[in-house]
Every structure is written in structure tokens, then in C-alpha cells.
């Protein structure tokens, strides 16, 4: 059974779903920062996914990275699966700029997280979900298991 890690749940908004993964937006407005989480239980490393799921995750990650690069006009896309604090497999996608507060170093711990205004959150979510709309992706909204701006339900059958 899939259960979203509580730290991911508390530190992000669930904004959509690919065929394999949930799409999260980090609650840090310092950077355009999305996270993919494969909806598979007890999955901590990429090799815990089947061969087909590994390929699917790469497809979803590539699509997300390209969309983020284009809509945010990023200088560089940082994509990483660290898992040192949150062991559940998740893939960070951060649009980076030579002018951002952490450039060229890692973003973690450089500056305090910045809250989204409701207007900016709606704008960012709209840009991302509209650009991804189509085959293999569904934006989530009111009435879904996960809703924008709310903590998701703690468990989902996969």
C-alpha cells in the first residue's frame, strides 16, 4: 500500500498525478521546485521499481523537467533523488537561475523557505498543470484524494 511520507505531505502541495507518480510542488517560493513520488509502497531506491516503472519514471521526470525549463525560463534544471532525510523514493526538479539565492550551490539550507501567496500559488500551479495537461497527466482539484493546498490523505491503495 502506498503512503506519502509525512514530511513530503507537510512540505508540499499535491497538484497532479502522472501514470506512475504524484506531482508535488514544494512549499518554498524561493525556487520553482516540483517533486515526483512514484505511488508504490516500500519504494526507497530507483531499483525497487520494476524495469517498466523505471522507464516510466524517467519519462515523467523528463517531461516535467522540460515543461519547467520552458515555463520558468530556467538557466539550469537540477534533478535529484537524494533520500538522506526522506527515504521514500522521490525526485526533486528545481528550476535554477544564476541569480537565485543559492546559486551555484545546493538549495537545501541556504535561505529560509519563503511562503507562497495564494495568488502566486494559483499562478504557479496553473502554469505547471496547464503545460502538462494531456496524456498521462491529471491535475488534481477539489474532490480528489489529494487537493491543492491541503494535506493529502495519509494512505492510498495502489
Automatic annotation (TrEMBL):
Domain (HIT) ranges: 1-103
Mind telling me which SUPFAM superfamilies this protein's record contains? HIT-like
Q: Which InterPro entries match?
A: HIT-like, HIT-like_sf, HIT_Hint
Q: Which domain of life is it from?
A: Bacteria
Mind telling me which Pfam families this protein's record contains?
HIT
Q: Where are the transmembrane segments?
A: none
This chain's protein is named HIT domain-containing protein
Amino acid at each position: 500500500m502506498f503512503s506519502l511520507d509525512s514530511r513530503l505531505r507537510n512540505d508540499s502541495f499535491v497538484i497532479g498525478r502522472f501514470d506512475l507518480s504524484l506531482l508535488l510542488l514544494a512549499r518554498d517560493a524561493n525556487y520553482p521546485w516540483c517533486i515526483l513520488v512514484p505511488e508504490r509502497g516500500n519504494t526507497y531506491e530507483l531499483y525497487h521499481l520494476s524495469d517498466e516503472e523505471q522507464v516510466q519514471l524517467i519519462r515523467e521526470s523528463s517531461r516535467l523537467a522540460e515543461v519547467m525549463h520552458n515555463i520558468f525560463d530556467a538557466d539550469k534544471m537540477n534533478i535529484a533523488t537524494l533520500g538522506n532525510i526522506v527515504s521514500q523514493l522521490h525526485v526533486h526538479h528545481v528550476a535554477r537561475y544564476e541569480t537565485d539565492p543559492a546559486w551555484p550551490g545546493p538549495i537545501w539550507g541556504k535561505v529560509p523557505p519563503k511562503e507562497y501567496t495564494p495568488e502566486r500559488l494559483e499562478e504557479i500551479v496553473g502554469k505547471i498543470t496547464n503545460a502538462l495537461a494531456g496524456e498521462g497527466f491529471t491535475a488534481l482539484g477539489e474532490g480528489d484524494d489529494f487537493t491543492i493546498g491541503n494535506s493529502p490523505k495519509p494512505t492510498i491503495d495502489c
